[in-house]
Amino acid sequence: MYRLIGMRCRRLVVASVLCARSIVRSKRLFSIGLLLLLLPVSALAKEVVVLLDPNIRPYVEALAGFKSTSDANTRIFARKEDGDLSDERAMIGAIRARKPDQILVIGSEAMRALAGEVTDIPILFVMVLNPRDRLKVMPGNMTGVSMSVAPERQMKVLSQLLPEVKRVAVVYDPEQSQDLINRGKKACLSVNQQLFAREVGSPAEAVEQAKLLLSENHTAYWMIPDQLMRARDVVRYLFFTAREQNRPLIGLSDKYVRAGALFAFTVQNETLGQQVAELSNRMLAEGKKGHHPIEMARDADLSINLKVASEMGITVPEVLLRQAKVIN
After folding, report:
1. Looking at the 3D structure of the chain, how many domains does it have?
2. What angle do CA 233, 234, 239 make, to 5 degrees?
């Protein structure tokens, strides 16, 4: 009987000890939870390191858009365009030491600087033309927002303005724009058009090939954000030929529309920054679970040159007039 009483007493003691430990643990958890609630939001937020050249105004505008939309804290690293590799290596080391949740690179040079150098941290890019063609191999930890407007949107507007035009011409540097050209071909087919694309390696060759392509009637020319195609001689020839032969040009921005292109979509730098911030927020929320392909610019402003349209005998549909910035 005494043994039974002793066993019961020991059980009561053990239960009391376990209960006391549970109470202490609960108090600790409550204290930790209360501390987390009292901490400022910035102490709990994720961190994104941003790498850019602060002397380039469009990059600063994109950064402002990112910061206005991002849920994360940002730490800015200024990149110098002086070619000093020792400075660049030190900067990459400093970024690694911070162990950020993400890295945002603004501009193609910043993208190239980190591609392959940092492989264990997600890297996003913005303010980059044709990103897949900027790098020989796109790292698995890199994604972002391209400056290019989806060709599908451009070809749809062309078909609304000039349904009789079935030929779209373009010359391009395959090292810069092959991915965009491939997508452009599919976009043309979707609206019963055909893209005639010619590879070139110099401005002189670009002018020669453009001349051959534009000699055909009912041909529009698609200007793309290719460094070679933005050469002064090429641009001058395209605008001269468009005027002389009454050929419609799809421009790169409203600046080109004011110069004589029929229409263009203009991407705003701050809007691109906001779009990449939304992508960043989704990635931070999903962790390593999601797959995030490269995005093209989602928001772009349509501009139409009504004077050029009138000279070509085009009646601009009301649906386009309502959404476009009209240039006379």
Report:
1. 2
2. 100
> Would residue 106 count as lying in a domain?
yes
Residues 6+ apart with CB under 8 A from 311: 246
The whole model's pTM is what?
0.79
Tokens of 81: 């365009």
pLDDT over 60 (residue 18): no
| Domain contains 133 | yes
User: Would 60 be classed as within a structural domain?
Assistant: yes
What are the backbone angles phi and psi of residue 148, rounded to the nearest 5°?
-75, 145
Same structural domain, 165 and 205: yes
CA distance 127 to 57: 11
Q: Which domain holds residue 187?
A: 151-267+300-327
Q: Determine the average pLDDT of the residues in 220-225.
A: 95
Q: Does 295 have pLDDT greater than 90?
A: yes
Q: Does residue 173 share a domain with residue 246? A: yes
Calculate the CA 39 to chain-centre distance.
34
| Pair (72, 56) in one structural domain | yes
Nearest CA to 147 among 280, 282, 253? Answer: 253
Helical residues (DSSP H) of the chain, grouped into ranges: 2-38, 41-44, 57-69, 85-98, 108-114, 131-134, 151-161, 174-190, 203-214, 232-245, 254-259, 269-286, 306-311, 318-323
Residue pLDDT, tens place only, 38-87: 445 444 579 999 999 999 999 999 999 999 999 999 999 988 655 555 67
261 and 288 together in one domain: no
β 249-250/219-222 pair status? parallel
| Percent of the chain at pLDDT exceeding 70 | 84
Q: What is the CATH number of the domain that holds 292?
A: 3.40.50.2300
pLDDT of amino acid 5: 45
